Amino acid sequence: MTQLKTAGRRRGLLGNMTDTNLLTTITIAVFIVMYVCAVAFLQEGFLKPQTLFNLLNANAALIILSCGMTLVMITGGIDISVGGVTALVCMSCAVYLDEAGGNVFVAILLALGIGLAFGIVQGFLVAYLDIQPFIVTLAGMFFARGMTTIVHTNPFNVVNSEFVSLKETRLIIPFLGSVNKKGNYIDAYIEIGVVVALLVVAALFVILKWTKTGRNFYAVGGNRQSALMLGINVKRTTFLSYVICGLLAGVGGFVYFLHVGSGAPSHATGAEMNAIASSIIGGTMLTGGVGNIIGTLFGAMSLALIQTIVSSVGLDQAWWTGITIAAMLCIFLVVQSVIISRRKKKNTAEAEASASEAAVEAKAETVSDKAENSNENTDNE
Amino acid sequence: MSGKLDPKGGGSVFSRVLRNQIFIPFAALLLLALFNLIADPSFFAINLKMNSAGSYILSGNLISIIDNGSELAILAIGMTLVTASSKGQDISVGAAIAISGSVLLRVLCGNDTRPETIQAPIIVAFLVSAVAAMCFGAFNGVLVAYFRIQPMVATLILFTAGRSIAAWINNNELPIVPGEEFTYFGGYIPGCPLPTPFLIAILCFVLTWAMLKFTNIGLYSQSVGINEKTSRLNGLNPELIKLTTYIILGLCVAVTGLIKVSRLSTINYSVIAKDIEMDAILAVALGGNSLSGGKFNMAASILGAYVIQFLTTTLYKFDVQATALPAYKAVVVIVLVVMSAPVVREKISRLTKKIRSPKRTAENQA
Amino acid sequence: MQQGSLLELRGIYKSFPGVKALQNVDFTLREGEIHALMGENGAGKSTLIKVLTGVYVKDEGDIFIKGHDGAVQIRSPQEAQRVGISTVYQEITLCPNLSVAENIFIGRGKGAGVNWRTMNKKAGELLASLGIAVKPTQQLASCSIAVQQMIAIARAVDMECSVLILDEPTSSLDESEVAKLFALMRKLKARGVGIIFVTHFLDQVYEVCDRITVLRDGQLVGEYEIESLPRLQLVSKMLGKELDDMADIKNDMKTFDDDGGTPVYEAENLCSTEGIKPFNFHIRRGEVNGFTGLLGSGRSECVRAIYGADTVTSGTVRMDGKHVKITKPKDAMKNGIAYLPEDRKRDGIVGDLSVRENIILALQVKTGFFRPFSKAKQIAFAEEYIKLLDIKTASVNTPIKSLSGGNQQKVILARWLLTHPKYLILDEPTRGIDVGTKVDIQKLVLKLASEGMSITFISSETDEMLRTCSRLLVMRDRKLVGELVGDQLTQNTIMATIAGGDQNVG
């Protein structure tokens, strides 16, 4: 038993963290460092709370989509249809509100329904028919994008008064406003979408942390076979993750719609990739089993922040955004890959040390036992 | 050969054809052809007409298919190899085409966006763009092979950055290549009635055939894709082989980039080769190749690419808008993958067995 | 159901494509007993257990469990848990990304919420009561394999099951942990729990078990009270050979004389990253030698180091007296070394490729990237070896994964023979294959040696080693501890050397 105790002791503070916590910590640290740097070296604008709120306002939909993506990625899958679904939701709601003159409440239901339908179909194909998630959701994306133009070809702004008033609703945050050049006090505000996004983050955080279903997502992503042996309904869990992701794509789609107030086939182009990037930067591993909603929130915010920084530095050409995001993604991926492989090596070394000790103490007579492969897992792990 | 353990070994000619991998895209092609034949036989008409340059060219839907499908077919070659060796797909090819096209333009036009004459021989420009595309392919390959990042994620980086890099190379300008010569690659060479892209594609197929015939890339990449550990123990270097396949894909990207840019004599960074990665992956899948790596059939992939173009042209014929195309493609993909899913196949075979077995017992009794 | 029995299996059949894994197997587990399930590899133990735990669905037969009327259907692990069967598998079936406490409690219990504090507290108590020194909040991946195994056992024990299946749980435990496990098993037994215990260690069987069921080739051999079945008989029942048969180990073909010439292969202070101590090794032309030792003693790691399969950290290697550098498998191949790995499925076959491609692979790699064999040549090579080794395959183009284990092994062997190696390393070539093929392979080894090939042969079956090898190197604790030749080659000396102690040779 002695070797077990020392094994525990040998690890430092970081070593004792779970993979999820470690990666989340890195993300939050990076975000804070970036923000502090922005405040220190760039315009004072970053000191205003409204700058932060604007980040949230502009990226509420991305946060919601990323949350769904994180969930699917924790379960070991991927859903690249979310951008397409967002566009479809925008267009469908826009057409419904303007051409059919519908009310906002039904439009919300429509958005949720579209998301849910995508989630259910994709989830079924992935979980129960065992088709690769990438292909299924790729087809989902194609379908959503195509349907968007079938619903309506040209972009247009929604003029439905009910909707416009909802779109322009601002929630004033007291005391955090700022004084402009003319000396007038301007209130800090957030849009409704931000509230929805934060609610989604909170809800998913609670689900992932404190419910059995939530923990099952991690178990399935960690090791499908083991999860099955541990008595978890792997198929249903996988299915559920896609359904929730689809639903959140519907929610995110509506929030996006609320922010832009129009329907267009080109809406949310590349949103799925931004969502994946947010999740990865937020510490979610594509291999599954590791990830955290808070990390994702900061991942999405980091992504937004770096874009703001890039443009405020004066590199406002569109290409810099793409390049910086890609560079960030690249760094995070490499860091993840390095951290995890180093940890694995360490664990293997320890496991082997204890295995060899076990082998010494095993009795010698047992050689006649025709002991074939009983030990292989310790040998080769 | 001694004994027969594998019950699937024998079988009639018909069942052997059915089992052949190329059957899938072939059947899809026949189905599409049949559909068109019934709907509108004039679909297959091929005319000889004179183009604006004064030379005779062939035209018609079939010609348009082999013309426009060629880029996809060339990409499918690289994509098939990458899929086989790294058990994943490169989603950055569209962005990489933008980069290589941009490099091509940069070399051809120099600093001037509207030059009077081309600033460098086309072959030099192409070689430079090929080197650039292969470098980006190598970048993906290194991430996949040495950092062991899943292909889709690793290539997500370039997917995100690629078009921006392409725009940056030309300072976001849209240079226009002067002269007739350059348009030959995406159009027609005077005196030749067949579209050049198809000729380039044929050249690529021949080169690919030669590559598969005279090197072991096929055996090695399949072996690495199926069992990396075994491959290593048999003296292969799995990382190097994966990297090689990504570099080959880079070369395919450069050729595609040349054709794409030549079609317009200029480039649109955000639109050029848009969604082509999806079509290329689809071509591989349609060819009956497993997207989780391993065994592949190159001819089936190439045929798959043309089937996709056939489908696209057919849909255009029926006045489907270009932007709505993906929806129809998606339905085709889903039907295909559902039909080929092992779970579904097993259920179907069990079902057919059930239907057949009463008959068989009756036969036995008789 | 009979009085006092907890679990009854009647007439269980299960087959996989090409394999009849279980044929008409009966099994009875009584209340409060520890029942050993014994058999060689491929005897069907694992399949039986997987049928019982719902991983596989049986083809035919009935399962009865006390407290359930009529036959029960077990279609998934959840259903098995529901009827009171819990299992600890040989390989760890826990989630490495979750905490220790979660791994104990996930997938069970009622309610939708997770109360971390109670869970950690309960897990802490459970772990403490079993003497497992690990924090409940620790991530499982940060625990050693042995601790992970104990955690799996803790989970199973905590499930209030009536049937507990332990599938080779002791293979990664040290002696004190095994003792702890046995104490626990006895405690559960007193509570009336029935325990099915699968192990390879005969000692452990005789230490804790009440009854033994023996399987062989997917069939039931019999069910015995522990007192009525002495060890030797148990072994003979497992192997399906009479005792006389087993004693009759003939060395008639072994005629190797150590002429003291230059060894074909010679290594000094060879050491790899896999935790083996530096060792010296040599082999001469036409010699057959072998590494022996307990599992995990490092015998496979030694040959992997020779072949360059693991990263070699130190040592000098000479082949035919000349210095060579072997750092990767390709170096070894170029120097005429061939290596048949122990885990056929993981390291040996390329499943989806054809028999032909699998046979030519190594020679092809050796020949070079730009010099592929023509199809006709490939077929000629493949057919030659299919005939030579009597490989049973429908055609040269059949995917290797559809062949039986023994034939797969022959294909791998063919792959290496095709490269005409000077030195052939066979790591467990006979594991998990039928008896006929085993004998074929042994004969082939001796024949190849008589033709001048040097062969290192590793097998878990000592009698096989005695039959083929003229020199045995004994490993203990990842260290080379002895070398046995000539008269020393008996079961007793080998065991004594492995055990260490006073009879230590070499």
> From the alpha-carbon coordinates, what is the Rg of chain B to the nearest angstrom?
23 Å
**Which structural class should the secondary elements of chain B be placed in?**
mainly alpha
Name given to the CATH architecture of the largest domain in chain C? 3-Layer(aba) Sandwich
Terminal CA distance of chain B: 34 Å
Number of domains of chain B: 2
Strand count, sense and barrel status of the largest sheet of chain B are: 2 strands, antiparallel
Q: Name the pair of protein chains with the most residues at their interface, and give those residue counts.
A: A-C, 72 and 90 residues
So what's the CATH class of the largest domain in chain B?
A: Mainly Alpha
Q: Which percent bin holds the helix content of chain B? A: 55-70%
The CATH topology label of the largest domain in chain B is ABC transporter involved in vitamin B12 uptake, BtuC
Spans of chain B of 5+ residues with little confidence (pLDDT < 50)?
Answer: 1-11
Number of strands of chain C: 19
Topology record:
The complex is a heterotrimer of chains A (381), B (366) and C (506).
Chain A: H1 2-9, H2 13-16, H3 19-41, H4 49-74, H5 82-99, H6 104-127, H7 133-151, E1 156-157, H8 161-167, E2 170-179, E3 185-191, H9 192-210, H10 212-222, H11 224-229, H12 234-260, E4 262-263, H13 271-281, H14 293-313, H15 318-361, H16 376-380
Antiparallel strand pairs in A: 1-4, 2-3
Helix pairs in contact in A: 3-14, 4-9, 4-10, 4-12, 4-13, 4-14, 5-6, 5-7, 5-12, 5-13, 6-7, 6-12, 9-10, 9-12, 10-12, 13-14, 14-15
Chain B: H1 13-19, H2 23-39, E1 46-50, E2 56-60, H3 61-86, H4 93-109, H5 122-145, H6 151-169, H7 196-214, H8 217-226, H9 228-233, H10 238-264, H11 276-286, H12 298-317, H13 325-340, H14 342-365
Antiparallel strand pairs in B: 1-2
Chain C: E1 5-16, E2 19-30, E3 34-38, H1 45-52, E4 60-65, H2 77-82, E5 85-88, H3 100-105, H4 116-129, H5 145-158, E6 163-167, H6 175-190, E7 194-198, H7 202-208, E8 211-216, E9 219-225, H8 231-239, H9 243-247, E10 265-272, E11 279-283, E12 288-293, H10 299-307, E13 312-319, E14 322-324, H11 329-334, E15 337-340, H12 344-348, H13 355-367, H14 375-388, H15 405-418, E16 423-427, H16 435-450, E17 454-458, H17 462-468, E18 471-476, E19 479-485, H18 491-499
Parallel strand pairs in C: 3-7, 3-8, 5-6, 6-7, 12-17, 12-18, 15-16, 16-17
Antiparallel strand pairs in C: 1-2, 1-4, 8-9, 10-11, 10-13, 13-14, 18-19
Helix pairs in contact in C: 13-14, 13-15
